[in-house]
# Entry
Amino acid sequence: MANRDTALVLGANGGIGGEAARQLRDAGWHVRALARGAGQAVEHKDGMTWLRGDAMHRHDVAAAAKGCAVIVHAVNPPGYRRWPELVLPMLANTIAAATAEAATIVLPGTLYNYGPDAFPVLNEDSPQHPATRKGAIRVEMEARLANASREGARVLIVRAGDFFGPSARNNWFSQGLVTPGERVRTVRYPGRKGVGHQWAYLPDVARTMVELLARRDTLAPFATFHMAGQWDPDGTRMSDAIRRVMERHTGSTPRVSAFPWWMLMLASPFVQTVREIREMRYLWRTPVRMDNTRLTALLGHEPHTPLDDAVAATLKGLGCIGGAE
# Structure
């Protein structure tokens, strides 16, 4: 029988998985974190139980999930590589474990599911006609989760914009706008001037998940919520926040330049990760905003950190301030 206060986090070494694990722990949950790598099979640290295993191995996931009421599925192939081979099998293992335990699966959702026919404002009922291969995979993931919700599991999807945060390094903020470990002298912005963009601060996303899980017994078996996050209405708000934070901490103000998409075009025939990044360029060419009406109707608010505070914490976590050279 599932323990109502025990959660398993897959991908706990990553950005959103790590945040979810820490905030579940701080909210009083017993957290198990499944992580790959050498070392002892079970380790207790940071107030969590770390288990060695592989999300691609069904037995590992099932054993780690034994007795859990919640499974946070925050695991993805690194660098966008091998999505067709790995993403759906990993999800299948989570679904099998959640169905056996009658647990709630929590999935961090993305904008990849949507194509231009759903823009510019997305709500939970917007049509999902993806424009990319990764988008098609995300749609299939959610279709399989919907089916799982009819077979004993429960599902909670929290969809947000582009992630950024102190512990997140596989995202546009840390791989495009700035360089981890270096003082920011130039902000490389990928979007078109005047085009709005949707951002999401990872601690806010994780806090939203935790607050929704506290109400999970009142939710539908398959529940989806959108976050408004940090909306940049014209593509300057995020860059300006980085410039303000750097000036405050270092006394120098970075300049803003266009992201070198031409370099990705040259490299894409040879590097799969670059090809996958280029595929998502359409989300920088048109404004895409998320409607959080359903979320605020339930919670009464959306967890929201002021932008400058979020950017300062992110830059500190990335080593761009506070000892960066």
